[in-house]
Amino acid sequence: MKPKKEIKGAEAFGVKIKTDKSLDKLSGKVLFPEKLKEANKIISKIKWS
Amino acid sequence: MKYEKYNTVLASANGFEYSFVSIGPRGEIHKVVQFLETSDTSIYNLAFGDLLPDGNIDDQIKNDNKDRNKILATIAAIVYEFTAKRPEKMVFFTGSTIERTRLYRMALTINLAELSQDFEILGLNLQEDSYTVERFMKGKDYSGFLVKRKLT
């Protein structure tokens, strides 16, 4: 059995992620409705082989 | 990723929204990235755009701040962060135009060797009225992309 891989986050690339409460006001909102609509349209038509 | 990145990114508490500041000749532009669950709960859509001073978001704007590669590399790091927390999920992305989708294909191609160590990278082909999925291949056009963390 293969060993589990280390799951790298952004910090592995020198990018520091800071939690910021000001972004919480965006949570739960669909910020890009057209993109989500397009994604759902495409994803609903995927034929997994 | 081979490019320089913005080294500070803000995140919402639930880890679905991220923001960073693009800095260039057009000044400071706030970028916002959001992952949202799609109709297939195993797939999250990745979208990003500009957070305008009035609080609205513009995902069509071309502001030419001369930092395109730095922005894409920062978004790639954000995808690493998101999928590190949800490695069982796939992330879908496509461009809002054919040119942007091609740009993403080029970015994947340039970084394919490195990204392939950590992700399964799939391309979506439109065939009649449905999409087939295959392992991403260099030099081939796709309608969109799916990435998933490799766990072993």
Task: Explain what the structure shows.
The complex is a heterodimer of chains A (49) and B (152). Chain A has 49 residues and is of the alpha+beta class. Chain A has one helix at 33-43; strands at residues 16-19, 46-47. Chain A starts with 15 loop residues before the first strand and ends with a strand. The mean pLDDT of chain A is 91. Chain B has 152 residues and is an alpha+beta fold. In chain B, 25% of the residues lie in helices and 39% in strands. In chain B, strands 1, 2, 3, 4, 5, 6, 7, 8 and 9 form a nine-stranded mixed β-sheet that branches. In chain B, a hairpin with a 5-residue loop joins strand 3 (27-37) and strand 4 (43-51). The longest helix of chain B is centred in the middle third of the chain and has 18 residues, at 68-85. The mean pLDDT of chain B is 94. The chains are: A alpha+beta (49), B alpha+beta (152). At the A-B interface, strand 1, helix 1 and strand 2 of A face strand 1, strand 2, strand 3, strand 4 and helix 1 of B. Strand 2 (46-47) of chain A pairs parallel with strand 8 (130-135) of chain B.
Count of helix runs of chain B: 3
Radius of gyration of chain A, taken over Cα atoms and rounded to an integer in Å: 17 Å
Radius of gyration of chain B: 15 Å
Mean pLDDT of chain B: 94
Classify the beta-strand content of chain B into a percent band.
35-45%
Name the chain pair with the biggest interface and residue counts per chain.
A-B, 40 and 55 residues
In this structure, how is the largest beta sheet of chain B organized?
9 strands, mixed
SSE layout and pairings?
The complex is a heterodimer of chains A (49) and B (152).
Chain A: E1 16-19, H1 33-43, E2 46-47
Chain B: E1 8-11, E2 17-24, E3 27-37, E4 43-51, E5 57-58, H1 68-85, E6 90-93, H2 98-110, H3 112-118, E7 119-127, E8 130-135, E9 144-149
Parallel strand pairs in B: 4-6
Antiparallel strand pairs in B: 1-2, 2-3, 3-4, 4-5, 6-9, 7-8, 7-9
